[in-house]
Specification:
Layout (H helix, E strand, L loop, with lengths): L11 E6 L8 H8 L3 E5 L4 H4 L5 H11 L11 E7 L6 H5 L6 E6 L17 H6 L4 E7 L16 H6 L2 E4 L6 E2 L10 E4 L2 E4 L7 H10 L5 E7 L19 H14 L1 E10 L8 H10 L8 H21 L2
Parallel strand pairs: 1-2, 1-3, 3-11, 4-5, 4-10, 5-6, 10-11
Antiparallel strand pairs: 7-9, 8-9
Helix pairs in contact: 7-8, 8-10
Length: 318
């Protein structure tokens, strides 16, 4: 919502309790206690949804999600989801969107793997690309190894080639590719390498102005995985990126000033591993850094960052 049009509106704050990572955080506990947020108890589905989901579990989740208190059509809805292992829930939040939107995706990973299961936290962008309402996805901030030989890792370079997906790493060396991908907003192909337009090397305010002006829709949805942030600002189950919280807050302000934000979802808490089967446990152990790298003090960063995010949302939508 444009800042000038936000007066008199309120956010609708949904806390999806899937993994116990959110409800003890002071800024969220306070808002749950005073009625400014709604908790959806999904703890029974958490291990089944985590990392990836069967279609049966997905349908159960969608049914439970549909039972939440609904805002008026003018009130932006905000979801705090828990671990980044649940980022594949984002398409469920978008399922009822009818108007054309641009999806702004903050993440240390592109989540575009075509070889993963359909409902997987590493492949959900491909499902979002198929949704008729979504006219463009802009992924901001990856630093991960997913961009090293992306074709061998199942990356959806076809979406980059078509321009339906734009990707801007925070900092990443050129990626080797085979065949012609072509140039895009966030990359240029030189022979068999994609040279990225690294955000760390750009004037952030100027980039945001240019990126926002180029969006094909007035309405946007914002999805945030806090592993996009440097470890000074978040402690997650995944490897961390390089974006600072100040950059993220500046981007949210810029988007709110120029576009109509219809919803936001935030994941990227740290949650102790709890999976429904041995294969998920093996996958998490193979792909994720050891949980022991974070101390209790480290995890306090998540509450501080969530407080900054919620304070900004409340400021934008008083």
């Amino acid at each position: 919502m444009r800042l000038g049009a936000a007066k008199g509106l309120n956010i609708t704050l949904n806390i999806l309790d899937l993994d116990h990572s959110l409800t003890a955080q002071a800024p969220i506990a306070l808002r749950l206690a005073n009625g400014q947020a709604t908790r959806l108890d999904l703890l029974d589905l958490g291990p089944k949804l985590r990392l990836w989901s069967t279609e049966k579990t997905w349908k159960h989740f969608a049914q439970r999600l549909a039972q939440r208190p609904r805002p008026s059509t003018l009130r932006p809805e905000i979801f705090f989801v828990g671990s980044g292992d649940y980022h594949h829930l984002t398409p469920a939040f978008l399922a009822e969107v009818q108007e054309p939107i641009s999806l702004i995706h903050f993440d240390n990973h592109p989540d575009w793997v075509r070889l993963a299961p359909r409902r997987h936290c590493g492949s959900w962008v491909n499902q979002a690309l198929k949704m008729p309402a979504i006219k463009r996805i802009v992924t901001l901030g990856p630093c991960s190894d997913d961009l090293h030989n992306p074709q061998l890792r199942g990356g959806n370079l076809g979406a980059l080639k078509r321009g339906h997906l734009q990707l801007f790493p925070w900092q990443h060396p050129p990626s080797k590719v085979w065949g012609r991908v072509g140039d895009g907003a966030g990359h240029a192909q030189q022979e068999n390498h994609l040279h990225w337009r690294n955000l760390a090397e750009l004037d952030w305010a100027a980039f945001l102005e240019q990126m926002i002006a180029s969006l094909p829709t007035e309405a946007v949805w914002i999805t945030i995985d806090k592993d996009v942030l440097a470890s000074e600002d978040a402690a997650t189950n995944w490897d961390q990126g390089g974006m600072r919280l100040t950059h993220l807050l500046q981007a949210l302000r810029a988007l709110a000033a120029s576009k109509r934000i219809i919803g936001i979802d935030v994941c990227g808490e740290f949650a102790q591993p709890a999976f429904s089967n041995a294969f998920k446990r093996w996958e998490a152990k193979s792909d994720q850094p050891p949980a022991e790298r974070w101390s209790a003090d480290d995890l306090l960063r998540n509450a501080a960052t969530n407080e900054a995010l919620i304070n900004l949302f409340e400021e934008l939508y008083p």
